[in-house]
Amino acid sequence: MTSSDNKKIGVLMGGFSAEREVSLKSGAAVLKALVGLGYNAVGIDVDRNVATKIVAEGINAAFIALHGRYGEDGAIQGLLELMAIPYTGSGVLASALAMNKIFAKQAFQAAGLTVAPYRVVCRGEVFDAKTFTFPFPVVVKPSQEGSSVGVSIVRQESELEAAMQDAFKYDREILIEQFIKGAEVQVGILEDKALGAIEIVPKKEFYDFEAKYSPGMAEHILPARLPADLYEKVLRAGEEGHRALGCSGYSRVDFLVTTEGLCYILEVNTLPGMTDLSLLPEIARGSGIEFGELVERLISAATLKIAQ
Ligand SMILES: Nc1ncnc2c1ncn2[C@@H]1O[C@H](COP(=O)(O)OP(=O)(O)O)[C@@H](O)[C@H]1O
Ligand SMILES: [Mg+2]
Description:
alpha+beta, Rossmann fold, D-amino Acid Aminotransferase, Chain A, domain 1, 3 domains, 5-stranded antiparallel sheet, 4-stranded antiparallel sheet, 10 helices, about 35% helix, binds adenosine-5'-diphosphate, binds magnesium ion
């Protein structure tokens, strides 16, 4: 698709996940870029009537600028498949897998990637902290959330229950993971290849919601300060993580990289933030791809993924 073939693009944004506000910002940046490039593009705020809105707008392709539940988990991708509207990014299965940290970890392990030791706890399960096989500190997180919502670092057993209750607010399945002390490194993937790796140095204890979205709360270092061989290793691990889940096109893969040179994969974000201050656009810019070009390359790769 090009700006001259007069197809109409819907930028799907907003939605009703915990990351609605972030998505509205991603959507606004993408829409501005597309219009600036001469595309016929409209913003569509996603709610339960999204199918009706898509029909009313008569769009020919969708740029998905949603994050979190219903947008990043395969739900909207399934709707677009049914409606035969090509869309950006990963398909139904990869999106659903990436959104579920438990299934994603199993796929990463099967692909030989390094993951933090973990244990799954389901809501209502009788849980005995004495049965732990790894020591404190640990990280407690909901299986299906993003933006560090519901994530906490627990230093001692007495704090565990409160952290678990908090994570259970967001999901009925949670993970308790070994705390990994390492550099926070994220790999940007475009057209299924690693573009570069950025290092994040949060001003707080970890890369929590505030550190992610408040200016000045996290330092970004591009390229990540890693020895050349380790930098190369994390790029390859990023591509493997992307492939292990069957992702299409682009993603941002989060790692913790230790001083021993281990690259612990945390997750693959199939719809990473797309404001012009977000990490994937920053990584892209570092390899000479400006925001407008990034958006254009993503929309020109929009396809259906089922039964191709
Ligand atoms: N096992 C871990 N050890 C240390 N820090 C972690 C661990 N898991 C998560 N974190 C911290 O929490 C942040 C969010 O975790 P992540 O698994 O990426 O979930 P989210 O989908 O919310 O981004 C990470 O960027 C990191 O700062
Ligand atoms: Mg993350």
